[in-house]
Design brief:
mainly alpha; 98 residues; 80% helix
């Protein structure tokens, strides 16, 4: 395999995913996560190449964007934690009433 074939296959794959999205096989959420991850990777690459300030700033910005995209997950986790905590409170015996 030639050295440029990996990038070519990656671009073909992304193009195919875009076409599938346009045909109704909704993969938009995947691209919504892909862009912030690529921004974080760009920041890591800049960090590793010696430009630590710029790399750190880019990675932090990508991290905040990714947190924004995954905020629904944090809401689900918080809701489940509240339910579990409430059920555990019901299961406890109340010794303070004696």
């Amino acid at each position: 395999m030639k050295s440029g074939n990996g990038l070519a296959l990656l671009l073909i794959g992304f193009g195919g995913l875009i076409i599938l999205g346009k045909l109704g096989f909704g993969l938009g959420w995947l691209f919504g996560l892909l862009i912030p991850i690529l921004i974080i990777l760009l920041g890591v690459m800049a960090w590793n190449n010696g430009n630590r300030l710029l790399g750190g700033i880019i990675a932090v910005v990508g991290g905040f964007v990714l947190l924004g995209k995954l905020s629904f997950l944090f809401v689900w986790i918080a809701a489940i934690a509240l339910i579990v905590f409430g059920v555990s409170m019901l299961g406890r015996k109340n010794h303070s009433t004696r």
